[in-house]
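Budget justification note: compute hours in this period were largely spent on complex prediction jobs such as the one shown. Inputs:
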Amino acid sequence: LDLDYFNPKEYIIGGTTLTGTHFIDKDVIITLSKLIKGERIILPGEATANAIKTLWAQGLFDDVQLDIAKIVEDTVYFDIEVVERPRLSSFEISGVSKSQKTDIMEKLNEKSGKSIINDNLYNSTTATIKKFLLGKGYFFTTVEYKTKPDPSLENGMILEVHVDKGRKVKVHEINFTGNKEFSSAKLRKFLKKTKQQAFYKVFGSGKFNKEKYDEDKVTLVAKMQDRGYRDAVILKDSIYQYNDKSIGIDIDVYEGPKYYFGDITWAGNAKYTTKMLEMALGIEKGEVFSEEKLEKKLRGSANGDDVSSIYLNDGYLTFNVDPVQTRIHGDTVDVEMRIYEGPQYTNNRITLKGNTITNDRVVLREIRTKPGEKFSKELLIRTVREIGQLGNFDESKTVPTPKPNPADGTVDIEYAVEEKPSDQIELSGGFGGGNIIGTLGLTFNNFSLKNIFNLDAYKPLPKGDGQKLSLRGQTNGKYYQSYSFSFSEPWLGGKKPISFGVSAFTSLQSNGLKPGNSNFQKIRLNGVTVSLGRRLNFPDNYFQLTHAINVQQYILNNYPGYLFNTGTSYNLNLTQELSRDSRNHQIFPTEGSYFKFTIQATPPYSLINGLNYATASDKQRYKFTEYHKWKFESQWFQRLAGKFVVMAQAQFGFLGTYNSAVGQSAFERFKLGGDGMQGFDFLQGSEVIKMRGYANNAVIPQGSDANIAQNSGSPIFTKYVMELRYPVIASQQATAFIVAFAEGGNTWNKFADFNPFNVRRTAGIGARIFLPIFGMLGIDYGHAFDKIPNIADGGKQNFTFSIAQQLGGF
Amino acid sequence: CKSQFEKIRLSNDVAKKYQEAMKLYNKKNYSKALILFEDLSQKYRGRAEAEELNYYYALTLYKLRDYTTARYQFKSFADSYPTSKYAEECRYMSAYCYYLDSPRPSLDQENTYKAIDALQLFINFYPKSERAVEAAKYIGILRTKLEDKAYANAKMYYEIGGNGGEASNYRAAVIALKNAQIDYPDIKYAEEMDLLMIKSQYAFAKNSIEDRQEDRYNEAITYANEFVEAHPESKLLKEVNGLKKDSESGIESAKRFIAERLANYEKYKSQLTKEAKRDSTATNTIKTPNR
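Corresponding output:
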């Protein structure tokens, strides 16, 4: 029976028969094939192909064949023949550990319940398991199968997989031949993930992984070539069994001669002169030839001073440079840089994708690549970083895609983002001083105030305007209560990049007696802060200037330990803060710096109110607190070799008086030492500065009364930190790193005594983990080198913990 | 002791399970019905009851407001049983679920685009269906959403304006407004957008350096003229003419500024020449300024 493929003809289906089924309802299969009696069909045509496809897609058959049984005039009869196989209902795996089983099941799971049991299933399952175990160092895996019927599924079979892992193999030795310039030890070092086993390597030593070994071979050659041996290759490598649990590797390399750069010439550059490009390239004639270095200088340098960046930051989006090795004479390679400049592109449509919670505006207003401006790679990268700093998106998944339209020289840029959970919750209960103390803190980092009365927006809270709302309460009943609230909006009114913040708190501490009782003691604190901040464009646009007004009220009622026992004191101050932040990441910066200069001052009441402070009562003296306070902090981050990052930090604080008759303010002093957690110290408004290795508030001025100095704090402090950091986990769920630190810091009572080099020193190690919902958690072990006199243990304390420092809000 | 539901869920009596699932569905206990439907849809593969089952499975998901899964189930139903009596309804529901998943204009509109495509596909499939009228209505609503977004995002550049004295936001506004009109030629905000374009261009010119102002003001005047032509009856004409007049006087003052600067420069140059004459050793050379 021949069908003419050039003349498809319409037929009526006279009937379809099905053979080969055992369990499945025939009529259903025929219906699914859509070759139903009475329907019209074009032959040859798509309908028959679709029928086979549909039946295959059921995943019930090992084979499907469709034949035309006969054609009578314009009626066609079909015959479908299928091979029905048992259906795979689930896997049962034995012979591997529980965690390996889970991992294997995860890889196999998409098959269970959807496949049939045939050779293909056996083969793919064996391959999956073998590949998985190879990655774990098992070289000699065998897999066997058995089936048993599944009573819960008609024609269903459970596949029993028995795995024999064999022994895990390790690399006993790696031998090199053919190397003259490179020592074998050096070459072994180039194999990053394949190492010889050795007794001193405790973690994962010598485990063999074929995939990683193949990657290593590529790196090995690249590293040799990078050192001038551009002809280097691996001639031959072999893996042999050393004994029943380890293997050996032989690698035969060819090094070839060492090459040097010859003449470097430029072709095709019109916008920039050859001289400028040579400067950007920075490779001199006679240097050791390295393609990696060439590539880096042409395209890939991290700080954007490569040749491509010059063009890409000036609109030349389709710029390309091709280094062609024009002549090799002796050990010298001449290179010609063939440049294609292309048109200068202007940004056109700037769009955002993936914002399922945050409103367009919140992100778009931060984007620096604006319509109408020349395309710039630098601004593109900075925008990605700043979108990350909003805190609502997964930084690693923010992807900008420029789409050039060569016809009109414009480029559309799409920023794809992925929302991440940014809300934090703090819920804790503790037992202290014979009382249960409970804390509830909530921080919403993407709040929408304008929708607070719009019930539809509650999903579960009105979100998407990039505002921050924090609420926190802490209480243990009648002894201690504290409530705080803060709200901030990064763009005041949504139109100007002026941040606005307002926060308030109230807290109460008492001895728990009734207010009428003559022994009743109480202190209440109330405070409100309003702040405005704006980004500056001068000296550069990383600067920010913030102004704030704080009002605090202290109401004391027979409360001991202060300068007065009963009365009310006010602290009204104005704060100015200038900061510059160019850190490239919020949680684990690897580059950039941060500095902050703050001045806080109260009005100089004593110069106005005509009070004689020598004779005035405490109530009068302390009614209005007066001081001026200066603070400076700087942080600097730099990536060292590999993933290591070094952080240098310096801090300085000074609390001054307007009038010596008034004396040093009792509030707002600095307390140095310990974990840096505020705890109950906020009652005095003092600032707690962490210094690992010492106990809380232990670093007091030399020669001062330990008890007083520890309780009140000191007016002058300075602290320096050097920290070496190494990231352990970097994922969306968590960021963790370990640190080694050295710190030096001290406090002074008078400016005359101040000596920035006379510090108490500590050193130690620690670990930090950042979990989006909890904030930063940290533990440190520090050793203090200098004893603090008159304090127990010399003020030393080895372990410090810091918890959720992002919260708190006081 | 297991509940009645748990017993049925764990039993192998599929017929009874099916009955129970339908009973739960009719009682509007959708979350429990879903558990049984999910289980049954695997076991009923290749059997006659599968059609009805999958239909109710999809409906259950819809009732539970899981529109993402529901639309997938509706679509796969329509693809598997194109001749079924539920096929049209399922195609419609699949598109309608996209519609329900379309977020507010200020968020990513991927689902809005997909909803428009799906609804349009439905109309093409069943042009005479009653549901096609509904579908067309929803397409209209979705288009308006996209227009709202384009307008709001273009307007934003004007609103954040010349922060820090930079004019670039105004230029961005002009470009974004033009693009929005290219993308949505019959956008309902055409009049407001045309006015905003003049305003933005005017602000852009005003915040530019004097040497660039003439060209940029002239562009604002061009936009104003185009506005008058496009919307001769507009209530906004008064404002447009005001902006045009301001642009004209802007050009005047920019010209005056440049002329004054040139005059000052000439004065300075002649003074230097005079001094040069007095002191014959002086060799001052002066370049004319770039215009």
